[in-house]
């Protein structure tokens, strides 16, 4: 998405032909256009003064991505930004939202102001306790716009709707929008471990995500190929190409201004090749001394020590609650007989859990211990579904959320097994939501059209949806970029490749039902919005 273009279209000249391409007012006339005389000349009116409503057809809902939930139409000219119009706020906590939308629409920021003038956009917090903090109401009436919500997040999403409405049709249509998301977690995950991405590129994605009403950005920054964020506790594990903590703070600050939480991931006990490169003594080896790629020896307390050092170090850098612990593809548990292949792990399991202790028990205990480490930092842990083991006598902590991505692992379980046990699940379905560079194995680049037409948050594995009774346990979904073949695409190619899949994904997370537009219409709208 050309985020800069969307931000400056109105600023380049508010009221200068922005609505000339048509709008949502009906009758082939933009909602914010001046009434035409019989001679075809526009009737003159004072700036910001609405025309008599009987001259206007009923409005249509604003065209946005994601689509708004409900719109009550009305007769009137709608609203468009013009010179002299202001953004005012009813609460000082909304100053950031006010300044942002004022700059984007080329308007004046009037600060906290009880006086409302013609043409104003007013942002306000309501006193509806218990309301969804992401819900909002946008009212366009009498030549003004009012956006209200119980929380500043909802107000922010209302400003995104206003921005898109102006971008799509030149004006915000008369009437009332009432809108809220179906799912509380709407994420994009980026693998910066296998491929280094510039801080500026990531910041551009944050702006794009914010305009689309995503609210999570995952950063998978440690894997076999690299460790990509500066470290003070273990600088020896950090790759040459990496983000400094100062750069990460700027990303996090920008994300917070868009009501996006950054979700870090240090995957363990597998996918730790970059850490092992600096600490080869921690690598897991089988009975013949053959190293297990990327896996640490979880019977060695030093392995837990270094991972906990890193988890604790980054707790303040990422102030949000969610924390991804990984837990997937531990090499020891891909062996046909883990206890025979890795006798040191089997011995540690028997010592800890008795004669029947297994490697799966030991790995589950590792996950639980890491969950306790981040929970002590007031984080909410999640882990990949193949980090939860069916036959372990040690149960994974029930508070660890399941990031469900695959049904291909050994002993794979259907999503309903996790849901019926009462677990909360986040949808990362690799059939639809995995953009894997180079298309290795059986992966193909996902298309926005397929997501838009065939996926919804209950489709957790393959193409089949789980029963509707589990919908409340599915917290949302995340579209993921994995860089298995890092050189297969440039950063720009990645941005272009994920553009429509991101838009389709957020549409279905905001409203899993039948979209109001067919795919060609949706794509045309995305092209118009930029």
From TrEMBL:
Per its UniProt record, what Pfam families does this chain match? Glyco_hydro_20 (PF00728), Glyco_hydro_20b (PF02838)
Q: Name one GO biological process term.
A: carbohydrate metabolic process
Q: Where is the Glycoside hydrolase family 20 catalytic domain?
A: 186-486
Query: Keyword set for this entry?
Result: Glycosidase, Hydrolase
The answer to whether UniProt assigns keyword Transmembrane helix to this entry is no
In this protein, the active site sits at: 329
Extent of Gly residues compositional bias: 18-30
An annotated Gene Ontology molecular function: beta-N-acetylhexosaminidase activity
Q: Where is this region: Disordered?
A: 18-85
Q: Where is the Beta-hexosaminidase bacterial type N-terminal domain?
A: 62-179
- Matching CDD domains, A to Z? GH20_DspB_LnbB-like (cd06564)
Keyword field contains Hydrolase = yes
UniProt similarity note: Belongs to the glycosyl hydrolase 20 family.
Q: What is this protein called?
A: Hydrolase
